[in-house]
Design a protein that fits this description.
The complex is a heterodimer of chains A (557) and B (234). In chain A, 54% of the residues lie in helices and 15% in strands. By secondary structure, chain A is an alpha+beta fold. In chain A, the strands form 3 sheets. In chain A, strands 3-4-10-5-9-8 form a 6-stranded mixed barrel. In chain A, strands 2-11 form a two-stranded antiparallel sheet. Chain A has a two-stranded antiparallel sheet with strand order 6-7. Chain B has one domain: 3-Layer(aba) Sandwich (Rossmann fold), CATH 3.40.50. Chain B contains 7 helices and 10 strands. The chains are: A alpha+beta (557), B alpha/beta (234). The complex binds adenosine-5'-diphosphate and magnesium ion (MG). Magnesium ion binds next to helix 1 of chain B.
């Protein structure tokens, strides 16, 4: 009983001992915050990666893929049918995406992915990452009549704002076409006037212009309009371009879509019709400014060009025009600035992946979704047994991102070791203060021994004292850590407001808020570790107190 | 050779201190007996080894050789847990410098040996009775109104009376007092001695009183002298 009373009394008269606990508190709080944030990032990243990759990816080594996905799916079902919830074929090829911003062509390297409109969203989280509620419900590569989200649908709370998406879709497309038409009319009027002037000057000009007219139809109106739009800010340059491009066929503009879609054999009205729809990653089309507003270079309704290799050997580059129908935002910047999705059938046709004789199409990979509770590795191994490894690669989503995931894990453990060292340093503080208390209390220890207290009892006082300090320190650290974690975004805002500096720049990270995950198990470990360190560092002083010779201790002053 | 009635028996007790290669033989074969209910003074010059003898009898230190018995049992070679228990329940000690715990008030200081004896759960059970006994003792020593004063708020005489109450609260078989009046003025010291005499007479408490003052020693039933490491009757 005296142990408890004395622990309590010593503590009440020696608040200074609590000072040594402050570092335990800070260490515990830091560990909790760092673990929560790291786990938040890692969790976010894993869900994103998993959301993109489906459970198991079955792919061909060759870029031209394998034929007859239906037969392969049949085989996969035969091998692991019980665990499979769904499958979808995909075609993926490296490609170039080009679009025009203020008259300048911007070209980006992309991964062009053909997906099945109906099944793809079921196999992965693809659908969740789209910007139109209708597309999230059910993906369609047809351009929508507006209604795109102007606030990020994936962030609960304040997300990035996208005022530009307000008018996206058909309204944007019609407006653009109208603007281009006005420009074209102005252009043609000017050109007609120039031609008339030239004709008035002399007939010799005719021959000079005539050869140019042969080039005219080849150049699409697109390009002409592009040039004109480019010229809006530079009227002088526009005049030059006009001169160069000037075909002597002012009455009939060449049909641009004849080239793009020769099979349709008719003029296309861009205000009412679209090219094949594509869904580019949002990172390809936009950037986030420092105020957290997303600025778009192109919008749903705009047309872009994609250049991709054909399936033949050697591959030839072919280009085609597509209409953006939505954006894809997985919040993994690597994917969001790389992936462009297109209907698989179109891509197969354009790449020549359909065998003219058999009519069988080829695909690059089959994405497999497993039923809940199925063991990914087991299914992967079963499929690997069935399909020859020199032709097919079967991997789980974890395999695919293995290096990244393990790098994050390693980062976390290194950080934890470092932070734990901080708490260990706090332990030495406790050790020093306890030694001082033992020296100061030597006479009291002698008195207690003369009253019949045993050595274990004396040691118990100091161990109990250390335990108490550890609990207080860890408890305060827990409270502080949780408070920080739960309010981390308001704290961030506060710090930014005070210092005027961005702590967490949403234009760098794709998360708008700092993600956190509180794992009770981790917290339990941290607390246990901190308390253990506090107790461990009171062991030496406690032993010293227990070993004090009672007579010597009584003589001490 | 051992008297049947004697409570505390010391035979051929030797103790030496070593510092470097110099050996100081403090006790060189001490024989000493205390009968039940007896009040004995041990006198001797300063440095003659009186405190050393008392510490050995109080089991605070171990002798080089010889034996100490309390009642019928030899107590100097017991395992430490049993010695702790004896110290707690059978022996009461009072020191020159009072040796009260500064963090505890008078009542708690008196209760300290009982708290040492009992665990937390047990303590909750005996607490009421223990407090009553401790308060009684303090009241008997004239400290009824000072129960919750800390040692630093008490005078020397008051502190020593608290220390005596602490030594007696466990109802020990023998009280060992090491110059209890050494830090007190004559009048206050006299009061303390009166208290001890009263305890001896009224309660039959067996007391060993160590002092270098012959006048104080004379208050006891019997006086022995410690000189040259041995005890001789005075
Ligand atoms: N731990 C020790 N080491 C060395 N000498 C000691 C020690 N304790 C006591 N002494 C010596 O033993 C002698 C007896 O001391 P003590 O019993 O305190 O004497 P008294 O109480 O009679 O004044 C003294 O000379 C003292 O210096
Ligand atoms: Mg002495």
């Amino acid at each position: 009983m005296y142990k408890l009373l004395l622990c309590w009394r010593y503590l009440r008269t020696r608040w200074i001992a609590l000072a040594s606990v402050v570092s335990v508190t800070l260490g515990v709080a830091t560990m909790i915050v760092v673990n929560a944030v790291m786990a938040g990032f890692s969790h976010e990243m894993q869900t994103r990666i998993h959301g993109i990759l489906s459970d198991i990816v079955f792919e061909a080594h060759s870029l031209s893929g394998f034929q007859d996905p239906a037969w392969h799916m049949e085989e996969i079902r035969r091998a692991a049918g019980d665990d499979i919830a769904g499958m979808t074929p995909t075609v993926a090829v490296p490609a170039m995406l080009s679009f025009q911003v203020r008259g300048q062509w911007i070209t980006r390297q992309i991964m062009f992915i053909g997906i099945d409109e109906t099944t793809h969203a079921y196999v992965s989280d693809f659908g969740r990452y789209l910007q139109h509620p209708g597309n999230r419900e059910r993906l369609s590569f047809a351009l929508r009549e507006g209604g795109y989200d102007t606030v990020d649908s994936q962030s609960d709370g304040p997300g990035p704002t996208r005022p530009a998406l307000e008018g996206a879709g058909w309204p944007h497309r019609r407006m653009r076409v109208e603007r281009e038409r006005v420009w074209r009319e102005k252009l043609e009027a000017d050109r007609a006037k120039a031609a008339a002037d030239q004709a008035a000057e002399g007939a010799s000009g005719d021959e000079g212009v005539q050869p140019a007219s042969a080039v005219g139809p080849v150049r699409s109106v697109d390009q002409q309009v592009d040039a004109v739009l480019a010229a809006t800010s530079q009227p002088v340059a526009a005049a030059v371009v006009n001169e160069q491009a000037a075909p002597s066929t002012p009455t009939k503009a060449p049909d641009p879509f004849k080239a793009a879609r020769p099979e349709e054999g008719r003029a296309m009205d861009p205000a009412k019709e679209q090219f094949t729809g594509i869904v580019p990653g949002i990172g390809l089309a936009s950037f986030r400014d420092s105020t957290g507003v997303d600025r778009f270079l192109v919008l749903p309704g705009d047309d872009v060009k994609v250049t991709f290799p054909t399936a033949g050997t050697p591959p030839k580059a072919v280009s085609d025009t597509f209409t953006i129908v939505d954006f894809y935002e997985s919040k993994m910047s690597e994917y969001d600035s790389n992936f462009v999705f297109v209907p698989i059938a179109q891509l197969q046709r354009m790449r020549g992946m359909i065998d003219p004789q058999s009519g069988l199409a080829s695909v690059n990979s089959i994405q497999i979704k497993l039923k809940d509770g199925a063991d990914l590795d087991v299914v992967r191994d079963r499929l690997r047994k069935v399909f020859p490894a020199d032709m097919y690669a079967v991997s789980t989503w974890r395999d695919k991102q293995g290096p990244l995931l393990s790098a994050v894990e390693m980062e976390m453990s290194v950080l934890n070791i470092l932070l734990f060292l901080i708490i260990a340093v706090a332990g030495f503080g406790i050790l020093a203060i306890f030694f001082m208390i033992v020296v100061e209390k030597t006479r009291d220890i002698g008195i207690l021994k003369s009253l019949g207290a045993g050595s274990t009892g004396i040691a118990g006082i100091f161990l109990g004292y250390g335990l108490f300090l550890g609990l207080v320190g860890a408890g305060a650290g827990l409270a502080l850590g949780l408070a920080i974690v739960l309010n981390i975004n308001s704290i961030r805002a506060g710090v930014e407001w005070c210092t005027g500096q961005r702590v967490f720049d949403p234009s760098i990270y794709y998360f708008f808020k700092i993600p956190t995950v509180i794992d009770p198990f981790t917290i339990a470990w941290i607390i246990a570790g901190a308390v253990a360190i506090a107790v461990a560092s009171s062991v030496l002083p406690a032993l010293r107190a227990a070993r004090l010779h009672p007579v010597e201790a009584l003589r001490h002053d | 050779m051992i008297k049947a009635s004697s409570l505390l028996r010391v035979r051929d007790l030797r103790k030496s201190y070593r510092s470097g290669d110099h050996r100081l033989d403090v006790l060189r074969g001490v024989d000493f007996d205390l009968a039940t209910g007896e009040f004995v003074s041990v006198v001797g010059q300063s440095g003659s080894g009186k405190s050393t003898l008392l510490h050995l009898m109080g089991l605070l230190d171990a002798a080089d050789s010889g034996e100490i018995a309390l009642g019928d049992t030899r107590i100097d070679r017991l395992p430490s847990a049993r010695r702790d228990r004896l110290r707690n329940s059978a022996i009461g000690m009072v020191f020159q410098a009072y040796h009260l715990l500064p963090e505890l008030d008078a009542l708690e200081n008196v209760l300290a040996p009982l708290m040492v004896r009992h665990g937390v759960i047990e303590w909750l059970r005996v607490r009421r009775e223990a407090r009553a006994r401790a308060a009684d003792l303090l009241t008997r020593f004239g400290l009824g109104g000072r129960l919750h004063h800390k040692p630093r708020q008490l005078s020397g005489g008051e502190m020593q009376r608290v220390a005596i109450a602490r030594a007696l609260v466990t109802q020990p078989r023998v009280l060992l007092a090491d110059e209890p009046t050494g830090n007190l003025d004559e009048a206050t010291g006299g009061e303390i001695l009166d208290t001890l005499c009263e305890l001896n007479r009224a309660d039959g408490l067996s007391i060993v009183l160590v002092t270098h003052d012959a006048a104080i020693a004379r208050r006891a039933d019997r006086i022995v002298r410690l000189a040259a490491g041995r005890v001789e009757a005075a």
